[in-house]
Amino acid sequence: DAVYLDDEKEREEYVLNDVGIVFHGSINEIKLRSWSYGQFEENILDACLFLMDKAELELSGRGNPIKICRVASAVINSKDDNGVIAGSWDNTYTHGVPPSAWTGSVDILLEYYSSKQPVRYGQCWVFAGVFNTFLRCLGIPARLVTNYSSAHDNNANLQLDFFLDDEGKLDTKLTKDSVWNYHCWNEAWMTRPDLPVGFGGWQVVDGTPQETSDGMYRCGPASVQAIKHGHVCFQFDAPFVYAEVNGDIVYSRREKNGTQVIEKIDTTHIGQLIVTKEVGGDGMMEITEEYKFQEGSAEERLALETAVMYGVKKQTTQDTTYQPQTDVEMVFHMQKAVLGSDFKVTITFRNKSRNSYTATTYLSGNIVFYTGVTKSEFKKHSFSAKLEPSSSRAFDVLIKSSEYMSELLDQASFHFFVTARINETGKILAMQKAAILEIPTLQIKTQGETVAGKEMSVTVEFINPLKQTLENVTLRLEGPGVLRTVKKEFRQIPMNSTLIWEVKCIPKQPGLRKLIASLNCDALRHVYGELNVQIQKP
C-alpha cells in the first residue's frame, strides 16, 4: 500500500516502537531525552481517530496518507482550529503544564480527547512527539527529526539578516529573523502519486505553528528528496523547509552616510546537523545528507540554483559592499559549565598580518529562548585588545552565576555575540555562539524482581545542586506497558538535599521496556531520567 516499508527492522522501529528519543540542546552540546509515544495504550486509537473527525477529513480521504498528514499537521497545534496543543514560547505557563514537564504523548492526547480543548503547553518537540504517536498509531511509518541551527527566515529569502549598529552591537529592533538552537519535526513514509516519480519515501511534516500554508498553520508533507535537489516547486511547503536547512547568515551595518556594509557572511551555520534516532537502538543517526549535498560542492550550488529557479527568493548582495576582514581571526570558546556555577569564556585573536592592531571588543551575553529570541542581556563587557604582528592572544571573561541565575529560562540557553572593531582599518569581526549549561539528571532504580503481572517498586532520586531551595516541584514518571503516568508534588527541596520518591506498579507486558521521569519547578526545568527495564515472563 501507500505506506509500505520493505525492511522489517525499520517497520519495527517506525511503526511498532512505542518509545523514542528527542535530540535537543545545541550543535555544540547535543542532548537527548526519551519520549513515550504510547500508540498502543488504551483509548489512544480512539483519540487519534477523533483528530481526523476534528479536522473534518472526509471518510474517502482517510486512506490517503498525504491528506491525513496535511490535515493532521494543522490539527496538532491549536492555532486557527482549536487543535490539540497550545504553544507557548515566552516562559509563562500559567494554568498549564510547562512543555518541559511532559514525558510522552498519552496524557496530552487523552486530555484533548476528553476535554476537546487545546492542552497547554507545547514547544516543537511536544508537537513532534504527539504527531509521531498519531502517525504510528494509524500505521504510517514515522520518525522524529531534529535540525540543529534551524533558520526561521521571516521573509523566506534564504538569508537571515542580523543588523549591527555603528558600534557593532546587534540592533534588536531591525533584526527580525532568528536561528533556533534546534527545531523538531517529523518524517512520514509514503508514496507520492501526486508528484513525479522519485519523490516518494520520507516526507517532512511539521505540527509546530511557525508560518501559515494555504491560510492555516500547517506544514507538509514535503518530499525530503525534492528538498535535497532544490525541486521546491512540488507541494507542500518545500520552500519553507528548504530555507530552514539552507540559509546564509548575513551581518550588515549601516554607515552614517546610509550605505549598507556587509561585515560577514556565514554560509555554514544553518542546518549544520540533522539527526534522528537509529533503528533498533538509542543512538543518534545523522541524516543531514538526505536533506543537502556536501557544503561547498558543485551539486550543492546546482540544488540552490534549482531552488531559486523554482521561486525560492535569494537576496542578491550586489547593491552592498562586502570586503571581509581576512588578516585577523577571532575565536570564541566557552568552558563547560554546570547550572548554578561560575564559568569563563575566552576570546582569542590571531593576527596574521605584519601590522600591530588594536581591537575594540564588545561581548554581549544573553539569555535566550531555544528559538533564538532574546529575553534579556545579562552580561556586557568591552575591552581593548592589543594585537602584535603574527601572533595570537587570548582574553578571558568571567561569568558569575549571580549574573545569570535570576534570569534563566527553561533550557538554560545562552547566546553570546562578540563584535570587534580593528581601529586601524575600521573593519569589524562578528560572531555568535549558542551555549548550554549542564542540567542535573534524575536517577531511576528498580528493586527486586521485575515480572509481568507482579507488583514491582521503582524509585526516582534527585539531588538539588543549586545554591537555593527548590519550591513547588512536580515529578512525573511513566513507561508504556509498565505504568501509566503518575505525578507527585513536593513543596520544597533544600539545597544539596536528596529527594527519593518510591512508586509501586504492576507491569503488564514482558520484554524490554523504558521508564521515563521528569522534574519541574520554576527555578529548574528540563530535568530528566530514564531506565531500560527487562520485564520477565511470569
UniProtKB/TrEMBL annotation:
The keyword Cell inner membrane does not apply. It is an enzyme of class 2 (transferase). GO terms for biological process: blood coagulation, fibrin clot formation. It catalyses: L-glutaminyl-[protein] + L-lysyl-[protein] = [protein]-L-lysyl-N(6)-5-L-glutamyl-[protein] + NH4(+). Keywords: Acyltransferase, Calcium, Metal-binding, Transferase. InterPro entries: Ig-like_fold (IPR013783), Papain-like_cys_pep_sf (IPR038765), Transglutaminase (IPR050779), Transglutaminase-like (IPR002931), Transglutaminase-like_sf (IPR036985), Transglutaminase_animal (IPR023608), Transglutaminase_AS (IPR013808), Transglutaminase_C (IPR008958). The active site is at C124, H183, D206. Its cofactor is Ca(2+). The keyword Ligase does not apply. Ca(2+) binds at N246, D248, E295, E300. Transmembrane segments: none annotated. PROSITE patterns: TRANSGLUTAMINASES (PS00547). Its EC number is 2.3.2.13. GO terms for molecular function: metal ion binding; protein-glutamine gamma-glutamyltransferase activity. Binds 1 Ca(2+) ion per subunit. Residues 116-209 form the Transglutaminase-like domain. Belongs to the transglutaminase superfamily. Transglutaminase family. This is protein-glutamine gamma-glutamyltransferase. It comes from Atlantisia rogersi.
